[in-house]
Structures are given as structure tokens and as C-alpha cells.
Specification:
The protein has 563 residues and is of the alpha/beta class. Helix content is 54%, strand content 17%. It has 19 helices and 15 strands. The protein has helices at residues 35-45, 74-82, 114-121, 132-135, 139-149, 153-181, 183-198, 207-218, 220-236, 242-256, 263-290, 295-315, 322-337, 339-385, 434-449, 468-481, 494-497, 524-536, 542-556, and strands spanning 2-10, 13-19, 24-28, 61-69, 90-98, 103-107, 110-112, 125-128, 392-399, 411-418, 426-427, 456-460, 486-490, 502-509, 516-521. The strands form 3 sheets. It has a 6-stranded antiparallel beta sheet. A 6-stranded mixed beta sheet has the order 8-12-13-3-14-15. Strands 9-10-11 form a 3-stranded antiparallel beta sheet. Strand 1 (2-10) and strand 2 form a beta hairpin. The longest helix has 47 residues, at 339-385.
Amino acid sequence: MLLNLSINDLAVVKTLDLDVNAGMSVLTGETGAGKSILLTALGLALGDRADSGYIRPNSKRAEINLEFDLSDAPLAKTWLEENELDDDQHCLIRRVINHDGRSKAYINNRPVTLQTLQELSEKLVEIHGQHAHLTLLHSDEQRRLLDVFADNQALLEQVNTYFQQWQQNNRELQSLKKASVDSIEREELLRYQLDELQQLDLNNFNYAEIVDEHSKLAHLEEILSTGHRQLDLLYENDEQSLNRLLLQSTHALNDLTRFAPDIESINGILNEAQIQIEEAAHQLRRYLDNLEADPLRLEVLENQIGIIQSLCRKHHVQPEELPELATHLEQELNNLTHSGERIDSLTDKVKKLLAKYGEIADQLTRQRQQGGQQLQTRISAMIKELGMPQGEFIVKISPLDSSLPRTDGQDKVEFLVSANPGLPAKPLAKVASGGELSRISLAIQVTTSHDKTTPTMIFDEVDSGIGGGIAEIVGQKLRALSLNRQVMCVTHLPQVASQAHHHLYVSKNNRSDITTSNVRPLNTEERVEEIARMLGGVNITENTLAHAREMLFQSISDTSSVL
């Protein structure tokens, strides 16, 4: 259960350190005092989305801390152990909201993601908002409540797993069947395209080498002409070649070394240059001697380049991508060739998955029908206690229009109510009275809560639209819930507040420039005064105080008290 809630710089709360006790606690106060901010703080600490608008003016950040005792939360304790976030029997949750809108979450002082925080939170606290009766009008929410009541989670997981597998395989099957309609034409086209590509000898395909060879043959005459001119200049001209001139220079300088020894090193450089020129000339001669015109090869290369460029334009690829294209087309052709086998295999698999889905969905339907009978019996009894003596609550379970698999099974769950005998039951959405809808919603929430393992439950003004003796019964029901779990309730009803084991009062301070809210526990006399305020408004008489005292002490003497 929740042991402590502390808040710093969140909206109208500057600082708050609140210990929370077992049993039933109520929060009351004037309208606008800030009761909702406590639930906002709890929601943020438990994983709700946050933004900088929650930060108190002139503050850098907001921080909420929660401390839980896990002795009554075995699911949360196991989850913490499995995620290596456990810390004995206690759990600390911390949420920090920064001025830039970003937030950080911590479990037992270790940083976690928001999703991780939310996974833990649902095992610790359950919040019923003041607009729960509006959510209750949706068919999906009605189905969810029935499944929670009937403990259908294991069957739901199975049926959804089979649905996902069936859906994935069926999509592939339908795609293959659709493709098979025109697969013959496509197969012919693929074979033609592959034949074109395979003319290029793609296993040894190198476009750069083809272009280089073509360029050399196409410019052979220029290569030979220029090469022989340079060979003559370098070596073969006996009178004016560079080789001849260098030889003359080295001989002349060699004669001078008798008088100028320093010239010998220069002459050595010239000797090396002459040797290099001679070697270059020999290599150039061998290269030119090996060249010969090959018109047929040139024609072959030109045709090949033309084919390559044509295929590139046709398939919108670069020449280097042609081998990859051929591989892709070959794979597609192979898939088409074997699509018949794949269709047969998938047809068999889809049939088996559909049968398994149907088997689990049927089990889920039967379990929903059994749970629905129990739920409608319990809620019918409770709405009679809540001022609808002739009321009947019905859980209608009917098959969905389509026989195809769906998520969450093949049932439509609808809550119906008959407020008076002889009148046909109508869907909740058509219940005329808002007060009746509030009572029905509360009955459903209280009834479905009895079978839950969540240790802390919070009710935010779920008793709106209720008054008089019915409000007292609502208080008794909430108090009964607190016998085996912690219950916190925000209320405006004195009949509910008087039933609580603990009473927290929310007040507002307007003495400074920034409004501040504060929360404090009330002692017995303070509770009498607050209940009297809730009963009598501005003018509180002795009779009002006496009535408040009678309500409170009648509740305190109740043997169901956990104190």
C-alpha cells in the first residue's frame, strides 16, 4: 500500500509531505482548494505524461515521491525482482519534471523509462476518475471490465497470439493468391528480362574494364602515332634523342672531373637519368609492338556497351547495379515458380491457426458467459441498494457480425439496464438519468474491484450525482472495500466522508502572490466541523454540528473499522 506522498513545486503545491494510512481515507475541502492536484501528482508519479505547465511558477522543476509497502502487493514485488529493481519490502518511486518539459523517472533510485514505470504502477494503484461513467458507455470498456472480473487475461493473451499469427499468414496467403492471377504473364516477362541480362556474362561482369578496353581500341591510331613520336624523341633518333644528348653531356662532364671532382656527383645523377630514359624507351617499344588493330573486337565492345546502356535505361539502374538486378529478378522468378507450393503450405497453416483461434475464442466466450452471469447478479443486487429497487443489470454477450477472427475474441459485450419492471432493458448509453448512470457506474467499479489484487484504489468524486441515504450506502461500500485494501476517495458528500477511517483536509492559501494548497489530517473534532461544513454550507448551527457528530461517531463505532 501507499505509505507516503511528497510533492515539491507542483502547480499550487509548494511542498507537501503526507503519510497515508491503511483503510479508507477521504480528501475534502472547498471547491478549488486543490484536491485534484493530489490525484494529478499521483498520476504523474505513476507514469502519466508530463509537461512544464505542471511546474509551480518561479520554480526550476517539480518533483513527486511515492513510498509503497509491498507486503500486500505480491505481483509488484515479483515484477520488481524479475526486473532487478527490488529493494526488500519497500518501493520508492520518484518523478522529476524539468522546466524544458522533459521528465525523469526512478524506481528504487534507479532510472527507468516511462513505459517501465507504467508497467509497475498498474500493479500498485488503480485510479477511478470522476468521469468513469462516461468511459463506461463504450463497448470496449464494458468488455474489458467483464474480462477483468472473469479473470480472462490468460485466454485473452492466447486468443490474441493466435489472431496475430493467423493475420500475418493470411495476409501473405492472400497476397500470393492475388499475384498468382497474373503470375504467368509476369513469369514470362521475368524470363525474357533475365535472358537479356545473362547475355552480359554477369558472373564476370566488370563495366569499368569493358569501357577501358573499348577506349583503348577506339583510340589505337592516336596511341600508336603519339607513342612512336615520343619513342623517337626519347631514344631512337641517333642525333637528337634525349638519350643521345644525355650521353654527350655525361662524357663531357666526365672529362672535367679531373679538374673539378665535385662534378662527379652531378654526373652520377645524369647517368641515372640516362638509364631511366633508356628503360622507359624499351618498355614503350614493347607496349607499342604488342598493340594491333582489332576492328571485330571493337565492334563487339561497342555492341556490348550499347546493350548495357539500353538495359540501364529500361530498368532505371546504373551499369554496376545490373548483376544485383539480375539476382533480384531471379529470386522473384523463383518465388513465382514455387508460389503454388507456398500457397498450399500457407492454406494449411492458416486453416490450423483458424481452428486453434476458434477453439480458444469459444473457451473465452464460455468464460465470459459464466462471468457475465455472476457480474450481473452482483451489480443488480448493488444497484438495488443504491436507490434503484426495481433495477436489473444485464450483461449481454453476442457474437460479432463477422466470423473472421478479431482481437480479444469474437464476442460483443454490452451492459444493459432496466430501471423499472416491465420495461425492456436498454444499453447504458440510453439511461436517461445522470444520477442513475453514476450509481450504476459506481456499482460496477466497486463490484469489479472485489476480485482485484491492486493494493491501493483511488476514487475521484465517483459519487457525484448521488445524495441522501444513497450516499451513506456508497460510503459503506467504499469502506467495505478498504477491509482488504487501501482506499482513498475525493468526495463532496458528508455521508461518504463520515465513513472514512482517516480524513484529509485540503485548504488554499491566497495570502501571497502565488496561491498555495496544503493538506493536513483532521482530528476528531476537526472532522466534526468539516462534516458540518459539508452538511450546512456557510451557516453552521449547533444542530448541524450535532448531526455531523452523530454521523461520525456512528461510523467510528462500526465494527468493520480496521483501526
